[in-house]
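Quick question: what would this complex look like in 3D?
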Amino acid sequence: MISEKMKQMIGSSSAIRAMFEEGKRLAAERGADKVYDFSLGNPNIAPPAQVTEAAEKELRECKGVFLHGYMSNAGYEDVREKIASSLNARFGMNYGKDGIVMTVGAAGGLNVVLKALLDPGDEVAVISPYFGEYRCYVSNFGGKLVEAAADKDFMPDPAAIEKALSPKTRALIINTPNNPTGAVYGESALKAIARVLEEAQSKYGSPIYLISDEPYRELVYGGVTQPYVAGYYRNTLSCYSFSKSLSLAGERIGYIAVSPDADGYDELCSACSVATRILGFVNAPSLMQRVAADCIDVPPDIAFYDSNRVAFEKALDDAGLEYVKPQGAFYLFVKAPDGDDLLFCQRAKDKGILIVPSSSFGVKGYARAAYCVSPERISSSAAAFAELAEEYGIKKRAGVDKTHKGE
Amino acid sequence: MISEKMKQMIGSSSAIRAMFEEGKRLAAERGADKVYDFSLGNPNIAPPAQVTEAAEKELRECKGVFLHGYMSNAGYEDVREKIASSLNARFGMNYGKDGIVMTVGAAGGLNVVLKALLDPGDEVAVISPYFGEYRCYVSNFGGKLVEAAADKDFMPDPAAIEKALSPKTRALIINTPNNPTGAVYGESALKAIARVLEEAQSKYGSPIYLISDEPYRELVYGGVTQPYVAGYYRNTLSCYSFSKSLSLAGERIGYIAVSPDADGYDELCSACSVATRILGFVNAPSLMQRVAADCIDVPPDIAFYDSNRVAFEKALDDAGLEYVKPQGAFYLFVKAPDGDDLLFCQRAKDKGILIVPSSSFGVKGYARAAYCVSPERISSSAAAFAELAEEYGIKKRAGVDKTHKGE
């Protein structure tokens, strides 16, 4: 009944979404307080008050025909102007409004950019581990995903990237702060990526675009800063989303910023606008375009995520589980004690803990836990994590007495 | 820089959108009062008051984390439940909530359905003239569009449809009330379509789905009624949008309804949900899902469009231009006096009238005018239409004295 392609897609469907659905099922079965769902990057803080105020103001002051009607496929002109100005002021860029194309979140933006760039058989490099959906997005346009493994600290490995590039490479996708590891690529990493791409461009004689997937751009902790990716490489297409910074994940609002000096700038801008139409997005949701622009410089609630991060690190430390210390985003990459991530996540689920095996991010041996949850979920899960560690023969390290879980 | 595929797409880009952009340019150049833009199906009436009230209520009463966050890819469960109930009550159907998948408008819904159904090389039949974007949507998934010409009254021609079907046909797309002709397929037309499809299904031994693109479902005039398409054929996938009925075109909100007795129902529902995710929609915009459900039974302002239709018909009658008398939607299909639709639209543009050549809808000899505009635009355009007709040697018929345009 459905296509062969789709049958395979359903078979290998998103482990994240499967876990999210499983969480809802388990909560209904066991009680919500016995399920610790860390599966989905769904912010657990409400949008800042300014978002609601902006939405109410737009509904009150803006004519309905304008507020809820079609505009150019790339978005409202004043919205794109505001976004360009904000990026220019914050990051010393020189974006024009034509370089900003409003999108249905970063996922929409990535699909638009890939539609604009890819002919069947073209290659797109990614640094593994990577957000598993990239595989689907690249496949949507007949492209081939080529993996370049990160180094042992989950930072980009220039030699591995170089090896992953070929005359068929149209783009490299990077994602910093990173999903699933929480790694943040600093200046030297970005310079190294730029150098490798520039060398490959001259070697192969055609542009290789850097697609920067940056929904977590503002989410960095402990004094770490995220340099602005497009500042380091001319041929950058930045895909941003307000999903995390303004807690608008369900509203599907973001944008593509085409770097002003990118090769084929005019053609790229047109192609992104046409792709937005052709793929059936037509335009990013209108009210939320305006709300996002109204709130363009409202900072995210970093303190909330940072305090979650500290609490979650403590819970894992206490349990004796190893993990990659996150610098940004809101994910923790926990090591499967015996290296089997699928079994680890299965055993975790038996304890009511929902985390996602790293196999769905292109590497083995880890599980991703999203800590954009309520602080209570973290504190109440500590005992379950300790029990899970104990099953692997790991002794408690401190603080938690597993025989007296406060009962 | 951009892909070969995209270069072709930009070259043959939507004439509708090109005309819309041209309209904005001309308005800036000549003054908005000298441009009569009938290019785009963008409702010119604000959403009903209930829409704003519902949005304000949701913002006030619904927790931000729930209202603006992720939900299942197919949409909020209570929203899908409400939509299923409403369809069941109005059309005597038996939809379950699993059969409703919330989409980014009907354009998003069509892409989702086609992604679910098509492998490269599969065929999709359409009745020409047809909404030109179908060609892009089918091409997105490597499908092949096959045209079945409508009869001389722009109604489905069973023999032509039969000829367009093959063992490779996965679906027939229909659109009633029709864009661009305004034709409405009544009971006998729908029965004839169902018969042809059923015969082809048994002949070829595999399901052929009827994709019913129905954003204009409620927009019918002059005592005409639109029977509910899915009531006539088991294997129907209905793609609805609130763009026109609630004037929410820019918000991108609609749904797919999978008929409960469709072959492979469970698989189809899953595939639509997975396709929503994979294509980068992720889910339909969250606030607008809730608003649409809150307003599910709010009727559109038919009287506005109907009075526009009457005024527009009169303007064309007075000018002496021939057209297809519309029964529904908000389009008028005007005959190019000498059969050259491209030249007709070019000449119209010289008079400040923006209409879209029928070539972009797969037939020659007509132009589409969207009358979802302000009544003033229709009345003020009458003289320009009369002048246009005169250029073709058509004498005024009544009412309008072209030498005295009220100056």
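Answer marked as accepted. Confidence is low (pLDDT under 50) at residues 400-407 of chain A.
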